[in-house]
Design goal:
Blueprint (H helix, E strand, L loop, with lengths): L1 E2 L12 H34 L3 H20 L2 H15 L3 H36 L4 H14 L3 H16 L4 H24 L4 H30 L7 H34 L2 H37 L3 H28 L1 H5 L6 H33 L3 H25 L4 H28 L5 E2 L2
Antiparallel strand pairs: 1-2
Length: 452
């Protein structure tokens, strides 16, 4: 591929409002699609929860396993977005759609393999989480009944990535919202109407996921046909997808490891800190959706501009998306810090836990602008196809965080103070390490690889 020394095709327009509309036009629908999936899980929890505590506990274990598997496969979306955006920016519409089709084939093959594996290892996986008896039985039932939906969910990831690369975030939003609504109705019918219990919830969710995957796959296939791309899997394209996706998988593993380490530390800080951490982590996750939506916009816009060999536009987009990220982080952080005490009342009446939540949310709120910087830069480098660098520094940032987290576990007091120190370590030290490593990369030129 050509490097940044190539002449730009078209400079960024002088009107900042045009760029802002592009960012918001991609980010707002992307946020809606991101929120739809957690709402689907919440709906399952509400429906199954009425069956009893045992069923709800089983759902919690099984859904944790499934969400982890799907989360690790998010590289299907990221890698496809970058590849399609580059081809599209270079004016190669057929090549862009071929990359999308190859992504679908990779997702389908991986999804079938994971579904078959889940069916076989379900009892062992549930047991590994420490479950036994009736809870383990319910978890296995849900895991096996919902496993057939994994190919559909992975197709959703790959197709969504392809459409994002084409700067279409509205279609995934429509599909996600429709799927969430249908899921509620279908699960109620199967769980209560048909009397299938927790199996009905798993089967209903799997059916909806397969339907969503098929819907989005049809959209990509139609686009491929109209562009003259082949619908057959290109071996080179699938292999390229694996190569691009593997570093992003390693990056995701390092992030998951940091999150799991944080939970482990919270557990050692006592029940008050652990209960408070559950709420703070949920708030952090919700805010992360908003910042991740901006990162998705950055992926698509940066990838397209690099494909067009338009380096001035890339630099201008980088500056503007960073301004949006830091600004959004500041606004969200201020709101998070301000509503902590009142928000905590919705989760607990224990004054000690409420105090711990309030203080920890103030800490995270102060540090949220830095998180906005990190999320956007992560999206920029993913859009540039710089996965190998992100994988390498993922290990570096994890290594920087581990001793700090261990120090909190060893020396921080239990209760609210310990939770505050823990979130200062995660939202401060860990995110600072990510901010520095991604910021240094963005200041240089090595990631500015242009062309398709």
């Amino acid at each position: 591929m050509d490097r940044k020394k190539l002449a730009p095709i078209s400079p960024l327009g002088h009107e900042r409002s045009t760029v802002d509309r592009q960012i918001l036009g991609l980010a707002v629908p992307a946020l809606g699609a991101l929120v739809a999936e957690p709402l689907l899980v919440l709906a399952d929890s509400a429906i199954v929860g009425r069956l009893g505590t045992t069923e709800l506990a089983g759902l919690s274990l099984a859904s944790t396993l499934l969400v982890t598997v799907v989360g690790l496969c998010v590289f299907l979306a990221y890698a496809t977005t970058a590849a399609v955006a580059r081809r599209s920016g270079a004016g190669d519409r057929a090549g862009a759609m071929q990359m999308g089709v190859d992504g679908l084939w990779l997702a389908l093959g991986l999804g079938v393999l994971l579904a078959a594996t889940a069916l076989v290892v379900a009892p062992w996986a549930v047991s590994a989480l420490g479950a036994d008896g009736a809870v383990a039985e319910q978890a296995v039932l849900y895991l096996r009944s919902s496993a057939p939906g994994l190919p559909g969910m992975l197709l959703v990831l790959a197709a969504t990535g392809a459409l994002r690369g084409l700067q279409d975030t509205r279609t995934p939003l429509v599909v996600a919202a429709t799927g969430a609504a249908v899921n509620v109705v279908l699960n109620v019918v199967l769980v209560y109407g048909a009397g299938w219990g927790i199996v009905g919830s798993g089967a209903g969710t799997a059916a909806v996921q397969i339907g969503m995957g098929a819907w989005l796959a049809v959209v990509v296939v139609r686009g491929a046909r109209s562009a003259g791309a082949s619908l057959r899997p290109a071996v080179g394209g699938v292999v390229a997808g694996i190569r691009a996706g593997t570093p992003l998988l390693l990056r995701t593993l390092s992030l998951r490891a940091a999150i799991l380490l944080t939970v482990w530390v919270a557990t050692g800080l006592g029940p008050v800190a652990l209960a408070g951490h559950q709420v703070v982590n949920a708030v952090w996750g919700f805010v992360a959706f908003a910042l991740d939506a901006l990162a998705i916009a950055a992926q698509a816009l940066i990838g397209t501009a690099l494909g067009a060999a338009d380096v001035p536009r890339v630099r201008a987009l980088l500056r503007r998306t960073l301004q949006w990220g830091v600004g959004a982080g500041a606004v969200l952080g201020l709101g998070t810090a301000a509503i902590g005490w009142w928000l905590s009342a919705a989760f607990t009446s224990d004054p000690d836990v409420r105090h711990a939540i309030t203080v920890a949310l103030v800490v995270t709120g102060v540090l949220m602008p830095m998180a906005g910087w990190v999320f956007v830069l992560d999206g920029v480098l993913i859009g540039a196809g710089d996965g190998r660098y992100l994988a390498a520094v993922g290990l570096v940032t994890l290594a920087a965080y581990v001793p700090v987290a261990l120090a909190v576990r060893a020396w921080a007091p239990e209760g609210w103070a310990g939770l505050a120190w823990l979130w200062a370590a995660f939202a401060g030290v860990f995110m600072l390490a990510r901010a520095v490593t991604t910021g240094l990369r963005a200041r240089g030129d090595r990631w500015l690889v242009t062309g398709a």
